[in-house]
Amino acid sequence: MTSLQHSSSTPPAAARSFPAGFRWGAATAAYQIEGGAAEDGRGPSIWDTFSRTPGKVLGGDTGDVAVDHYHRFRDDIALMSDLGLTAYRFSISWPRVQPTGGGPLNQAGLDFYRRLTDGLLEAGIEPWPTLYHWDLPQSLEDAGGWPERDTAYRFADYADQIHAALGDRVGQWMTVNEPWCAAFLGYASGEHAPGRREPAAALRAAHHLMLGHGLAVQAMRARHPEHRLGAAVNLYAITPASGSDADVDAARRVDGMQNRFFLDPLLRGSYPADVLADVAQLGFDECVQDGDLAIINQPIDQLGVNYYSRFTVTGEASETAQAVSSPFSSDSPWVGSEFVGFVDGGRPVTGMGWEIDEGGLHEVLTRLHRDYPPVDLYITENGAGYDEVLNGEGTVHDGDRIAYIDAHLRASHDAIADGVPLRGYFTWSLLDNFEWSWGYSKRFGLVHVDYATQRRVPKDSARWYAGVIRLGGLPERA
Ligand code: FCB
What we know:
Elements lengths: L15 E2 L5 E5 L2 H4 L12 H6 L17 H15 L3 E5 L2 H4 L9 H16 L3 E7 L5 H5 L6 H18 L5 E6 L1 H9 L11 H25 L4 E13 L4 H24 L4 H6 L13 H5 L5 E13 L26 E3 L14 H14 L4 E6 L17 H19 L4 E7 L18 E3 L6 E3 L1 H12 L1 E2 L4
Parallel strand pairs: 2-3, 2-10, 3-4, 4-5, 5-6, 6-7, 7-9, 9-10
Antiparallel strand pairs: 1-13, 7-8, 11-12
The structure holds beta-D-fucopyranose.
C-alpha cells in the first residue's frame, strides 16, 4: 500500500489550525462493515432479520459479508495509519459478544475486539468504541425490543461486561448511537430494523435507549472513573419555511422530537414540556419511572454530534411539502391534527438527497454550547454519500466529498473560535459500506471498496484528508 502521506518534509503551517490534541478520526459501525455474520458464535441481530425480509433493503442486500472487516481488520488498520488517523470510531456488535443479549460473553467474539483494539493501539490510533449502533440481538427483539424496559437493563449488563473485558486498553466509550434513529426509524416509520410502525412503542424505545445509556455510564464510571464516557446523537439544524405561525410551530415540533427530546434528558435531566404535550395522547409518561431522568442525566464527559444536514419545515400542507415518513407524517399521532412537512431549502444536495449546509453545523454546535451545560463535544459523524464508480484510472475523484468535509471542518473551526469546546472530528466513513435500507447503493467512504473482490482503493478524499491531518488544519481558501 502506498502511503497517503506525501512527504516527510515539514508541512506548511495551517492558516486554520485545530487545537493540539484535536482528534482526527473516521467512523464505521459493526453491521455495516464486519460481515462474518455467522462466525465464531455470533447470534442474529434485528438487522439480519430485517435485511432478509423482502422489500426492506434496496436490492435485498444484507450485512452477511459487508466489507469483510472481520477478516481484513489488519489491512484496514494499515489504511488508517496511512491516513494518519489519531482515533477510530467503530461499534461493538452486541450479538457477536453476547449472542442472545444475556448471559456471559462469547469469548470468540470478544477476542475479535481484543485483536482490533490491540492492533489500533499498536498503530498509535485511539480506539473509540460505540456500544450500540443498532444491531440489537434478535432474541431481545423477540422479547419486545427497546419498547420493553428490561432491554435497557440487558444493555447495561452487556456494556458492563464489555467494559470489564476491554477497559484495561480502551478509555473512550460511547454508549448509544443516534437513539432517534434506533427508536423512530426502527419502531415508528419502520424504515429501519425491526421495522415496526408503532409510534407509542417508539417513544418508549427512545426512553429505554437513554435509560440504557445512563445505566451503562453508571456501571462503567464505577469501574474506571477516569474513562471518558458519552453518547452520540444525530442533530439537525431546523428552519421554518416561513415566518407563519404554522411553519414556526412545525419547526418547534421537529426540533423538539429530533433534538431536544434527547438533549434535554441527557444534559438537563428533563424532557421538554412542549414535546411532552405534543405526545401526551400516546401515554409516554407511563414508561418514565421515578429516578429514570436522574439515571439518564448521569454526568458525561463528552457528547458525540452526528451532523449531516438542515431541515426546512412547514406546517402548511401543499403539493411541494413532503410529509416525511412517520413520526412526522401528517397522519401520525405524533403531530395530532397538525401537518408537519419538509420542503426544499434550495441548497445543493449530496447523493442521498440531503441538503448541504455547513452553517447548520456551526448553528448546532454553538446552540449546544449556549443552551446546555458545558460538555466536551466531538463530531462523531459527518460526511457525504454518493453513487460512485471507479473511473478508468481505477480511482474515484470525489471532489464533492472533499468540498463537503472541507466546508464542515471550516464551520467546526469557526465554532471553536467562538468558544465551543469541540475536541475532535470523525468523518463518516472510513470505508464504503452497507448503508442500512439503501444497501450498498450509497457510498460514504474515504476508501472505495469493490464489493466483489473486497479490494480497497483510497479515493481522492482519503489523500486530501491525510493532508489535513498532517497539517493539523486547513489552508486559507485561495
Ligand atoms: C447515520 C448512521 C451511520 C450512517 C450515516 C450515513 O445516521 O449513524 O451508521 O449510516 O448515517
